[in-house]
Amino acid sequence: MKLFKTTLAGLMMTAAMTTAAAAQECETTLRSSDTHPEGYPTVEAVKAMAEEVRENTDGRICIEVFPSSQLGEEKDTIEQTQFGVIDMVRATLGTFNDIVPETQLFSLPYLFRDQQHMYNVVDGPIGDELAEAIAEHDLITLAYYDAGARSFYNSQKPIESIDDLSGMKFRVMQNDVFVDMMDALGANATPMPYGEVYSAIQTGVIDGAENNYPSYDSSGHSEVAQYFTLDQHLMVPEIVAMSKQAWESLSPEDQEIIRTAAENSETLERELWAEQETASKEAVEAGGAEIIEGIDKQPFIDAMAPVYEKYATTPEAQDLIKRIQETE
């Protein structure tokens, strides 16, 4: 027993010394928050960014990634980053809607034609302008990540046209835009917590829901709703943002190192997301799901006119939508 206690004490001392040594290596440690778990594309991309920053600053700057909502949910961690309580955050652009009004338009249905169109928008002048608007709220945008496209799935029938949605009951997030979208499509919106969707479909309370391939797969919803229609009605970018306070504490040289690493992580995250989507699609198809692709989306898009009129009420908003739609 005495030998065990001695050995344990030695291990604890060694661990403490290792931790202290690691802390001494980093002159600056930046804490980064993510709600997603270990292994998720966004988490792994920020980790890769951290590794590049550490390497290119000779260990002076370290980024410590806290996944799985360890530092709080997205809305809370965005506010903490604004005030400099934490240094970095990865969050969906939709969570910024109450903070940065310009972000609201990016949650409009069928705004982007496809993922490449979304990339072209956020990687160009519009993305730069959005970053400037976000900067006014003490947040420095470092990268735009991909979160996939949300599509409809249900337990009743293949949805091949807008008419097939008529009268069907779909779970949506508790968001006015989503409710209005379903109304415009002729379906019935049923807001409910995500965790209740499986049983609600299984018992017939709702006919289906909407989400991306990885969520459709990991949630098990493909087991009870075997018809997945790839209409891609919503693509909301995610961003990595840094506290303005933390950013301004860095030298211009270190800022450039972080920006470059963030841009590289952006490329990696999009690649990882594409791989995850492919794997999830293959998994649900192997499980018996029917994927309906190549539908005519124009009637769906045309039906959104009243939704756009309700939420794009200013000339500036209307001009931004026009510029997004015209981006090649």
From TrEMBL:
Pfam families according to UniProt: DctP (PF03480)
The protein's name: Tripartite ATP-independent transporter solute receptor, DctP family
GO CC term, one of those recorded: outer membrane-bounded periplasmic space
Secretion signal span: 1-23
GO molecular function per UniProt: carbohydrate binding
UniProt keyword terms in alphabetical order: Periplasm, Receptor, Signal
One of the protein's GO biological processes: transmembrane transport
UniProt cross-references to InterPro entries, sorted A to Z: DctP_fam (IPR018389), TRAP_DctP (IPR004682), TRAP_DctP_sf (IPR038404)
Location (main, coarse): periplasm
Compartments where found: Periplasm
Superkingdom of the organism of origin: Bacteria
Species for this entry: Paracoccus isoporae
